[in-house]
Write a structure and sequence with these properties.
Helix content is 43%, strand content 15%. The protein has helices spanning 23-42, 46-57, 60-72, 89-98, 130-150, 164-175, 192-195, 198-204, 209-216, 240-248, 251-258, 285-301, 341-357, 363-381, 387-408, 414-421, 476-488, 491-503, 545-554, and strands spanning 109-115, 122-127, 183-188, 220-222, 225-227, 270-274, 277-282, 313-316, 321-323, 326-331, 334-339, 422-425, 428-439, 445-449, 522-525, 540-543. It starts with 22 loop residues before the first helix and ends in a 13-residue tail after the last helix.
């Protein structure tokens, strides 16, 4: 068996086998360099930033992580125009050693089309070759810390540790008060990814210009015909979302500088952006139409972009607007955010198509197909005013499944069909479920039941702080706190927290005192995430809030207690 040689940085040391790579060391080295890039960016030291970027992109650790990313994601089996995929350990380690700047030339992308959300129009998708994906992933490791440091505060799409729930919560923040802005500009950028100016990208994106120019000008193959790309960044490229975000960064700061708040005159101009979808609030329609919109159009024109004339509109908050699958509207002066009607209808249509396709499936197979859909949709909307809609969806699903069951047995009565496909669990009746054939420890037979979407609890989302940066070491404690809250918000996470607490014999490893509900608790990474640590149970301990502050301030080395059961 080969052994990993020491050194994961930019030295000449190399692992001789894919499985012998010291992944913890790779993560630690890359995270350390990314933290230094953040610090140099904050200090305005452009030369230092370039030197650190060059060090990272030439490092064995960065190359190994880039190859690992493109060979472990969902598209790992989808080849580019060369038909090559890296599926064996030998091909992966060979790919790591082949990632070099000198002599590299990007290949054209393979163009395919996928349906948009409305199911009518098609969206172009460019699939790069594996070598191009790995190169983009490598240079993204060096670019992402800069993008996070320079990003607009209220930009939430395609960014680490941010989500649509944060964007929706920001909408509530800027629109919920009685004196909040009442007019909203719903902006839609026409073909954002396809229209970004190459000249602007090359002039303003702080990354290797030659590499960026090569990716931008690579072109694409469609029906064996090579097409030249004069603008845009391909949807499907690993680095494309970050390039798009950096193209639109600066819009919020420009609006803030132009429409500063004062006691006598407050235009109440705020922007909430998720990727290329954004809304801008204003105190009057005139401000948005005659002042804000021309300013935005000028900002976009400098980058080769423009607003869609058909989809961009100005709306009053009493009429409401749809944003990220939610409907935001005031009812009698009270702001309510609900799942959008079109989103609900699209989801029910997908469920009905799934049930129709499973006309001959076993009941257990149908439940296993529906449960991820129901749970995922419910988790997405559980932070909004969704209880009534969850009940409506549950009833629609029950009707669909009842018809499915009746069609399978047209000559059986309703009582027989009910006993065959529906169960009673506790106080709940008419539960669509079946026995799995397994027996639980209590002696009862295990039941596989449909996810109860109506029982999904509604919980308010805690929005991420606008300036939070996951690559900056000073935010480590903040993200540990958010991880603990996220774990408390799910059944699996709560079980994991209890397990950590019991493994520590319910005591804090720092002060050796009991951790109770009244004392409070905080999660602590023994190896900081900035140093390559993971959110795994083996790297987490539970401390008192005060002990957590002491451990972070003094840099204490916290040791995980040995299991009480022994080895």
């Amino acid at each position: 068996m080969t052994v990993q040689q020491q050194g994961t940085g930019a030295s000449s040391d190399r692992a001789k086998h894919w499985h012998s790579i010291d992944w913890a060391g790779c993560y630690r080295e890359v995270r350390r360099l990314q933290a230094r890039i953040v610090k140099a960016t904050q200090e305005g030291r452009c030369g230092k930033v370039k030197a650190l970027q060059r060090l990272l992109t030439n490092s064995f650790s960065g190359k190994a992580l880039a190859v690992r990313r493109v060979t472990e994601n969902q598209g790992r089996r989808t080849p580019g125009v060369d038909g090559i995929t890296w599926s064996t350990p030998k091909s992966k380690i060979k790919a790591v050693l082949s990632l070099k700047r000198r002599g590299y030339r990007p290949c054209p992308l393979r163009r395919i089309y996928i349906p948009k959300a409305d199911g009518k129009k098609m969206r172009p998708l460019g699939i790069p070759c594996m070598i191009d994906r790995a190169q983009q992933a490598l240079y993204l490791l060096a670019l992402e810390p800069i993008a996070e440091t320079m990003a607009d505060p209220n930009s939430y799409g395609f960014r680490s540790a941010r989500s649509t729930a944060d964007a929706i919560e920001q909408c509530f923040t800027v629109l919920s008060q009685a004196d909040s802005a009442t007019w909203i500009l719903e902006a839609d950028i026409r073909s954002c990814f396809d229209e970004i100016s190459h000249d602007w990208l090359i002039a303003h994106i702080p990354t290797d210009k030659a590499m960026l120019r090569g990716w931008s000008k690579a072109g694409y193959l469609h029906n064996r015909v090579l097409h030249v790309t004069e603008a845009g960044t391909p949807q499907g490229g690993i680095i494309s979302p970050t390039l798009m975000n950096m193209t639109l960064d600066g819009l919020e700061n420009m609006l803030r500088a132009r429409y500063r708040r004062s006691k006598n005159n407050s235009p109440k101009v705020n922007i909430v952006r998720y990727a290329d979808d954004f809304i801008i609030t204003g105190v009057t329609k005139d401000v948005l139409v005659n002042e804000v919109r021309p300013t935005v159009e000028q900002f976009l024109a400098e980058r080769g972009l423009s607003l869609s004339q058909e989809k961009t509109r100005v709306t009053h908050i009493d009429n409401g607007f749809d944003f990220l699958g939610m409907n935001v509207r005031k009812y009698g002066g009270k702001l309510l955010i609900k799942p959008a009607k079109a989103n609900v209808q699209r989801f029910l249509r997908k469920l009905r198509e799934t049930v129709k396709a499973g006309a001959m499936w076993r009941q257990g197979d149908l439940i296993r197909k529906l449960n991820p859909l129901l749970r995922g949709w419910a988790n997405y909307h559980r932070h909004a005013v969704s209880k009534h809609i969850f009940n409506s969806v549950a009833h629609a699903v029950w009707q669909c499944l009842w018809r499915w069951a009746r069609r399978r047995h047209p000559h059986k009565g309703t009582g027989w069909v009910r006993r065959r496909y529906f169960r009673s669990v506790g106080f709940r009746q008419w539960i669509f479920g079946t026995e799995t054939g397994k027996t639980l420890g209590s002696g009862r037979k295990e039941l596989l039941v449909l996810y109860d979407i109506a029982g999904t609890p509604i919980r308010r989302h805690r929005k991420i702080k606008a300036d939070a940066n996951p690559f900056d070491p000073k935010w480590e404690s903040y993200f540990e706190e958010r991880l603990g809250l996220a774990m408390m918000d799910s059944l699996k996470g709560r079980k994991q927290l209890i397990r950590l607490w019991l493994d520590q014999v319910r005591a804090c490893p720092v002060c050796q005192q009991m951790i109770t509900k009244s004392s409070g608790w905080r999660l602590y990474h023994m190896v900081r995430k900035i140093d390559g640590g993971k959110d795994t149970p083996g790297n987490l301990v539970v401390l008192h809030p005060g002990c957590h502050q002491i451990a972070r301030a003094l840099g204490l080395s916290v040791v995980k207690p040995a299991p009480s059961m022994g080895l």
